[in-house]
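User: I'll paste a sequence; please echo it back and then give the predicted structure.

Assistant: Echoing your sequence first, then the prediction.
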Amino acid sequence: MSQSMQVSRADFDRLMVPNYAPVDMLPVRGDGSRLWDQQGRDYIDLAGGIAVNALGHAHPQLVEALTEQAQKLWHVSNIMTNEPALRLAGKLVAATFADKVLFVNSGAEANEAAFKLARRWAHDQVGPDKHEIIACSNSFHGRTLFTVSVGGQPKYSQGFGPAITGISHVPYNDIAALEAQISARTCAVVIEPVQGEGGVIPATAEYLQAVRALCDKHNALLIFDEVQSGMGRTGKLYAYMHSGVAPDILTSAKGIGGGFPIAAMLTTDRVAPALSVGSHGSTYGGNPLGCAVAEKVLDIINTPQVLDGVGERQAQLTAGLRQLSDELGVFSDIRGQGLLIGAVLAERWRGEAGQVMKLAQEEGLLVLQAGADVVRFAPSLIIPEADIREGLGRLRSALLRLVG
């Protein structure tokens, strides 16, 4: 196919594996917090590519970083390292709890590495019996067989043969349930500081502190899945920083590349040696292109101006959502942290989050859902206030159609 060949949304059904059901518009260009489709219609983007486009579309500094690196070096095998990877690793270590970094390509791969690291660490430190992983109900950790088994949503793991064993699930934000489940056989507890796919539910600081204490008591590792909540999304570089609770392993993806596929697993000097030479790897992990872009993303986001701005935009967006709810009665709760926001549908419209997403798109607005009952918002961290205002206006038009 040449680039000049005309394609349309109908070609998806003809050519692509049917594991997605994309909307009927086909985007061709993005700039900041706006997208344009093949027909030239504009959309305000409050979805952010599911919390990926942390700096919007085609940010000029990211375009510059990508094109500059593309003229130097795209890929080298992991037989050698490269300058962008080492610079990015150094900046991540300096900005977080971590001492060591492993680069991969996606959140699922980062979590896969985290779970393998936890099991190998426990195996080497204690023995093969210490291999159990505890996760939370309604959690989401990726789509590999291991990560869907750890994720607390059976719909994603059913029908793919026997699940990986040694995994259990407890209710989120419920310390008594975890206390009853954790044991000497537990190698790790994995938690999203803000449950994303599970409904945009933040963990309380008290819960995270209690989980940390239980992990220490039972010699288990604490893993924070910050694939969605990390890289400035909550108003701190990583959400764990709100609670003061440092994990042993943290996974970061989505926003870390601003749209370029890259992810990282961060860990400590105590744990990292368990992944010795040859024990794990990734062909593309840490490639110079991805790392050059992610370094620029980190440089821009990890500043008071951007991180403080997240809180200001959160206040504007949540105030607007509450105003719409007061007027139309569609939401029973507005929750979340920073610019990861969930609007819970009122009883009368439960199950209609997908319909809200569809109506919003028809009004020129991109939003998300987090389950059937929650409309999710994850816009650019630097979205202009004018775009938030206009986006809320378009959402109002969609909600007026919903309520009839």
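The mean pLDDT is 96. Residues 48 and 379 are 5 Å apart (CA to CA).
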